[in-house]
Task: inverse folding
């Protein structure tokens, strides 16, 4: 009996070794060509030819390759003598992971894999995968241009439970110990202080969306964001929440539906089309909740980055 058990254990270990060898054989980063990755980066970064990062001059010549990455091209500006390479000034510069790993990581972020799943797919430890995704989110959110909405725009707010995951000092400041289970949010509307921050959304029908995490949903908080994002003269559609009552005074048309009376869409001009509604932003909230779910709880310190990245993906 002991001999049989020993044979089964050896057979099981042999299968595990074969499975690991197969995983290593089809490792995704081995399927990407580093040279093609750098070529794509150059095409996206300089579609009209390489430009000096210092003086913006076009008198740039090639100046060899990086010592460790032979496909990473170096450049020299003949005007100001500035030296740079394909990754200088990008979020990919100064990191030890190969560029193919970054390209795959950004792809996996786009299809909404969690940090743990990305680490498994790329053969990284979870801390490295988390650091990589944070760098990419920071870079994308920082480089995303401001969006201006116009025409028919819908407003609404969503409340998401977000504590201080990964920040034990902030948790202790709340007078409690860290949790192993999900943080439970209170009923009704919340605030950042109550660890149920509001997310304010503005979406142009047939166009782009802008979402912001706020400390609260007071008019003094909302109005500066609205005036910066929505063009004057636009028609805004909301529910009957009182924070939107002063929109006409800001220079916007304002139409509402009353969810409390069971009204979700209304035809005002008799053409048979119910144009007064906030169903577009309500549908967007459904997408956002599904997007956040695989990440299993996001701290309020990092939630704005996840929202900014989702806004970028949705708009792109």
Result:
């Amino acid at each position: 009996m002991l001999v049989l058990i020993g044979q089964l254990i050896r057979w099981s270990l042999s299968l595990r070794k074969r499975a690991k060898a197969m995983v290593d054989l089809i490792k995704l980063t081995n399927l990407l060509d580093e040279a093609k990755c750098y070529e794509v980066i150059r095409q996206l970064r300089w579609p009209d030819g390489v430009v000096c990062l210092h003086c913006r001059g076009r008198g740039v010549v090639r100046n060899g390759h990086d010592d460790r990455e032979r496909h990473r091209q170096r450049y020299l500006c003949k005007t100001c003598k500035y030296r740079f390479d394909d990754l200088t000034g990008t979020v990919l510069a100064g990191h030890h992971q190969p560029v193919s790993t970054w390209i795959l990581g950004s792809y996996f972020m786009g299809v909404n894999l969690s940090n743990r799943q990305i680490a498994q797919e790329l053969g990284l430890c979870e801390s490295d995968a988390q650091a990589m995704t944070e760098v990419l989110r920071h870079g994308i959110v920082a480089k995303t241009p401001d969006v201006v909405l116009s025409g028919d725009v819908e407003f609404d707010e969503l409340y998401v439970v977000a504590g201080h995951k990964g920040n034990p000092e902030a948790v202790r400041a709340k007078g409690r110990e860290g949790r192993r289970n999900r943080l439970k949010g209170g009923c009704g509307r919340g605030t950042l202080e109550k660890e149920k921050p509001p997310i304010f959304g503005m979406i142009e029908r047939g166009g782009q969306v802008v979402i912001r995490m706020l400390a609260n949903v007071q008019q003094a908080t909302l109005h500066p964001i609205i005036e910066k994002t929505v063009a004057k003269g636009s028609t805004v559609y909301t529910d009957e929440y009182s924070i939107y009552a002063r929109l006409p005074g800001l220079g916007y048309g304002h139409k509402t539906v009353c969810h409390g009376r069971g009204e979700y869409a209304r035809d005002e001009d008799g053409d048979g089309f119910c144009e007064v509604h906030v169903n577009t932003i309500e549908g967007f909230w459904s997408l956002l909740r599904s997007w956040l779910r695989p990440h299993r709880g996001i701290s309020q310190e990092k939630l704005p980055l996840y929202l900014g990245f989702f806004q970028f993906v949705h708009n792109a």
Remarks:
- The beta strands are 60-65, 73-77, 83-85, 152-159, 198-204, 209-213, 235-239, 253-257, 265-266, 276-277.
